[in-house]
Amino acid sequence: MxxxxxxxxxxxxxxxxLVRTPSRAGIDAPAPVVRRMQDxxxxxxxxxxxxxxxxxxxxxxxxxxxxxRPDGPxxxxxxxxxxxxxxxxxxxTGASATDPRIADGWLHGRGSADSKGGAALFAHLLQDFGxxxxxxxxxxxxxxxxxxxxGRFGGxxxxxxxxHDGAPPPRPDGVLIGYPGIERIVTGGRGFLxxxxxxxxxxxxxxxxxxxxxxxxxxxxxxVQALEAAPLPGTDPAFGLAPRxxxxxxxxxxxxxxxxPDLCELRVDLRLTPDFADAQARDWMRHTVDGLDAAWxxxxxxxxxxxxxWPAYRVPDSNPMVAALREASRAELGHALPTGVAGPSNxxxxxxxxxxxxxxxxxxxxxNIHAADERIALDSIGPVYRIYRDALRxxxxxxxxx
Length: 402
Prior knowledge:
The chain is an alpha+beta fold. The chain is 30% helix and 24% strand.
């Protein structure tokens, strides 16, 4: 029997409205999808404030309800309203990526899982708690941010980096991010560090017989092999994942055929763990590059241009947010959900750097995220909603009157 206390039909209706509104990061204007959420909040009397970037562009909304003791715990729910790109339109089964069709128990459409489904669910949780202000302590906020899939996290930064009403930038007691996934509670993520390697050669005519030069591409190919063969630390037992290196780009030559290239640039992505942090990763890279350079006669030393990222992080299972979600999942599912960390970095890494604990994954069951026919399972809405509602009630439980 459906739970009448879970507004599934209304959640689905809001999600369909959001999916119909294209909001690809860096492609579509953010204002239309923000307007859809504004209209929904306005119709229910839920106050909000707009978040804007330095250029005035709207990058999200923040809404909040306060309980009987506003000085109690402050919890923020966060879900992004922007999405990945559509990809090849011909690979989608439905009419388009913004067609929120329902078939065989699934709701399809770009962003349905990542993370407009979370936004629709969180909006209704805010409405629920707005009706029972006398039953909880503290403050419950919902952040609907954009500019997340670009990696810039502009919406989150517009909230967490900016003072408001003369107060310093906000630092809630904890943030729950509505990324999809019902099988576990994601309590952290690997960090990252990126580098652009300049592998040098000696230019020459490709048809010359005496001055053959030194081919930077050949030298770079050897460096690629050395990097992929160099051992990295294994799985960090306390963290749950191992570091990883990925070659993500190569550029060389001037587009012609008659010149031996004297520069080849490689782009490298390093995923970090607590045991393989920024300093260790830089030392590992420098050692591997120097070893390769020593094996080649001629040509300048390989240069490394670093792009700093974020450290890995993991919120301990003893954190109140983790404990509340695990207790709520035990009550709903008959067992406490396991915890783990994510391979990709995310807004949680950014918040960790601000000293704000953030869980970066528990939500609707989704499939084909960032691919064609992205979708969420409709039968996951009820359990996920009840687990979040129960967990928030545990976190925000009002203290008895003195």
